[in-house]
């Protein structure tokens, strides 16, 4: 007779190549990946569209601000050139009046200088909210 067969003891391992997840869970995971990816792509497209709109708005506003700045700069150059001429004339009159001893002419020239110093080029433009409305109106005609 042959020797008695010895029994084998140990742990039974699961078959190799099979998932520990049931097939239904794997399909659900795939659907989650696909749905998540599609949601991401939709959201990205929406955000890119929003960014494009913001960039277009920014471009329009920056252009409008630059045009308004250019207009205001031209206004100030004109007003201050005009004021400069007026101030020069008033000081010439003041110098002439003091040289000749004409106190009435000196007082008048001095009052003109003080009055001019008190005035602001922006005050002459009136209410700044009206200026803002005019700047917003592309059909507004500016006269300097």
Query: N-to-C terminal Cα separation, in Å?
Result: 127 Å
Structural shape = rod-shaped
Number of helices: 3
Low-pLDDT residue intervals, each spanning 5 or more residues: none
Protein architecture, described:
With 144 residues, the chain is mainly α. It has one domain. The chain is built from 3 helices and no strands. Helix 1 packs antiparallel against helix 2 (103-118).
Protein topology:
Layout: H1 23-100, H2 103-118, H3 128-136
Briefly summarize what is shown:
The chain has helices spanning 23-100, 103-118, 128-136. The chain is mostly helical. Helix 1 (23-100) packs antiparallel against helix 2.
Which features would summarize this protein structure in a list?
144 residues, mainly alpha, rod-shaped
């Amino acid at each position: 007779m042959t020797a008695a067969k010895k029994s084998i003891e140990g742990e039974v391992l699961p078959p190799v190549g099979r998932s520990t997840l049931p097939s239904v869970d794997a399909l659900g995971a795939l659907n989650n990946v696909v749905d998540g990816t599609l949601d991401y792509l939709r959201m990205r497209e929406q955000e890119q569209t929003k960014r494009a709109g913001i960039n277009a708005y920014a471009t329009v506003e920056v252009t409008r601000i630059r045009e308004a700045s250019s207009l205001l700069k031209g206004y100030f150059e004109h007003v201050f050139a005009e004021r400069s001429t007026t101030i020069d004339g008033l000081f010439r009159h003041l110098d002439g009046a003091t040289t000749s001893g004409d106190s009435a002419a000196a007082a008048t020239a001095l009052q003109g200088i003080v009055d001019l110093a008190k005035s602001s080029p922006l005050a002459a433009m009136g209410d700044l909210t009206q200026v803002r409305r005019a700047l917003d109106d592309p059909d507004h005609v500016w006269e300097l």
